[in-house]
Amino acid sequence: MTTQHTTDGHRPAIRGFLAQFFGDHQPADEDDIFATGFVNSLFIMQLVLFVEGEFELTVEDEDLEMANFNTVAAIDAFVARKRATVAGD
Fold it and tell me: What is the distance in angstroms between the CA of the first residue and the CA of the last residue of the chain?
């Protein structure tokens, strides 16, 4: 059995962070936020720092894959997986 690591509980905070860069544009859960043209090269570092600070976890070098950060749903799932790992699930 596969455990799906995602929760809607993280998404409001993620959307709040993204709103700083996207203005009135609200990306859908599966929209590639890097393909929108609203972010620059510094955005990924700001996003990683946000994820670490907001969700009190450490983003390791091996976690720095676009698949973990390119959509709201992917960020949410990444946070859920990291928290589950820390909790021992």
Answer: 13
Rounded to 10 deg, the angle between the 11-22 and 43-55 helix axes is 150
Q: How far is CA 76 from the centre of its chain?
A: 5
Q: What is the rounded distance in angstroms from the CA atom of residue 30 to the CA atom of residue 4? A: 16
Residue type, 83: R
* Cα distances (angstroms) measured from residue 18 to each of 1, 24, 35, 45: 33, 10, 14, 13
Please, are residues 64 and 78 in contact by the beta-carbon 8 Å criterion?
Answer: no
Q: What is the pLDDT of residues 21-58, one digit of tens each?
A: 998 888 999 999 999 888 888 999 999 999 999 999 99
SS3 49: helix
